[in-house]
Each structure stands twice: as C-alpha cells, then as structure tokens.
Amino acid sequence: MDQKLSPYHQAFLGRFSGVLRWHQLDELWQILQEEGSNDWFIYAVGDSPPEESSLYPELENFIKEVNTLLRQDHDESYCGIVYVDNFTQPTFIKIFDPNNLGTSCSTGLAPPLPAWVLSKIPPIDLPSAMPQTQSRKRWWKRLFN
Fold first, then answer.
1. pLDDT (tens digit, 9 = 90+) per residue, 63-122?
2. 22-35 and 56-73 are packed helices; what angle lies between their axes, rounded to 10 degrees?
3. pTM, whole model, 2 decimals?
4. What are 125-134's contacts with CB under 8 Å, separation 24+?
5. Where do the domains of the chain lie?
6. What is the Cα–Cα distance from 47 to 33, expressed in whole angstroms?
7. Please, what is the Cα angle at 104 between 136 and 28, to 5 degrees?
8. What is the pLDDT of residue 105?
9. Dmax of the chain from CA atoms?
10. Any bridge partners for residue 51, and if so which?
C-alpha cells in the first residue's frame, strides 16, 4: 500500500469481511456494546468527519438506530451490507445504505462509498462519490440533535 496514505485511508482500503447474516450483525453489535468504550468515531460519509470519538451512549444510540434502519430498508433474509475488519476485535466497520448500493458490476467505476463508518482511527474526509439523500441527512441529524 502507498506509504503516503493516512492510517485511516490505509485501514479503509484494507481487508474486510462481509456480515452476511443478521445474527452475525447482532453478534457484532454485542461486541461493541460489551466493550462499552468511548473511542469509536461515528462518521456519516458526506458530512464533515468527527474530530472527537463518540461517548458510549452516542455509540449505543447509533447502533440501535442504524440496526433498525438496516432491517427496515434492507428487507432481505440476509444482511450483506455491513463489512468489518475483524469479527472478534473490530476496529473498522463500513455500513452501506440499503437504498444506495450502486451495482456490484461496477467495472471501471469507483465502488460506492459506505454511508456510515465506525472506526477507532480518526476519520479523514472521504470523497463523496454518492450524495446523501435528504431523508438520510434528516435521519442523521435527528440522532445527534
């Protein structure tokens, strides 16, 4: 990997595993909740990246709200829209918006960016390859206002 990339960018481009089943997503959320830490950055791609990590109650609320949103808007028997760097000791989680997945056959095109990223590394401003819809912006603002 290019040494000029920031640690966040390197991690973002690193190896991830898909959370394929809903019970795996439940287990991932449980790991984060049991950890109970204040060192997770919650980043809505397209907004300015947060400068400080979230307090645990903010993380807990985000998990609850995004879990509800994913299950409502991705009405499938499988998950497949969340990716994690390590299932047992996660430090980076990409969450894709079920209403803006793009195409899996995007040959020659940049893949869609996730809608939300949880990381233990301070985020950088990722290029906005897909603008957020107004409903997603309102949903995001409601969480932290």
1. 999 999 999 988 889 899 999 999 999 999 999 998 776 654 444 445 678 999 999 999
2. 170
3. 0.82
4. 125/48, 125/49, 126/12, 126/45, 126/49, 128/45, 128/46, 130/46, 130/100, 130/102, 131/46, 132/44, 132/45, 132/46, 132/47, 132/97, 133/99, 133/100
5. 7-144
6. 25
7. 60
8. 46
9. 41
10. none
